[in-house]
Design brief:
Helices cover 37% and strands 28% of the residues. By secondary structure, the chain is α+β, with helices and mostly antiparallel strands. It has a single domain (3-127), classed as Jelly Rolls (Sandwich), CATH 2.60.120.10. The strands form 2 sheets. Strands 1-8-3-6 form a 4-stranded antiparallel sheet. A 4-stranded antiparallel sheet has the order 2-7-4-5, with no helix packed on it. α4 crosses α5. The longest helix is centred in the last third of the chain and has 18 residues, at 115-132.
Length: 138
């Protein structure tokens, strides 16, 4: 499998997506190179994109304190694709990085264009909520 598509298929939000949907996400996601020190998102700002890390590292900070560092094969900002809400953390590259970036506009267009994809994403979200709250849904 293409490494780009393999990375996309590992994102929990896309876990229930079929091959065609993963390939479409791959076409929509832009591959970008960013320098060390680039702020990808700021806590509290409006969300506009989802990031998948191909190479490099990204520091995640909440309320000014380092929460964790992410590296190749990891992702950030996927919930922003769904709710367009404010960012819950600040993310800054700590090394030069190559990222796959999926904007919420492209994601929304895909949801509108492919109802089956919408159902797959909703199923993934429902499973995540169920795992977070095992007593939900009784």
């Amino acid at each position: 499998m293409d490494p780009k598509l393999e990375l996309i298929s590992k994102v929990p939000l896309f876990a229930n997506c079929d091959k065609r949907s993963i390939e479409e996400i791959g076409r929509l996601a832009e591959e970008v190179d960013v320098p060390a020190g680039k702020v990808l998102m700021r806590e509290g700002d409006s969300a506009d994109a989802f990031y998948m890390i191909v190479t490099g590292t990204v520091r995640i900070e909440r309320t000014g304190a380092t929460d964790r560092e992410l590296g190749p094969g990891q992702w950030l900002g996927e919930i922003a694709l769904v709710d367009h809400g404010p960012r819950t953390a600040t993310a800054t590259t700590t090394s030069p990085a190559r990222l796959l970036v999926l904007g919420h506009r492209e994601f929304d267009q895909m949801l509108d264009k492919h109802p089956g994809f919408r159902a797959q994403v909703m199923d993934s979200l429902a499973k995540r909520v169920r795992n977070l709250e095992p007593d939900a849904g009784h």
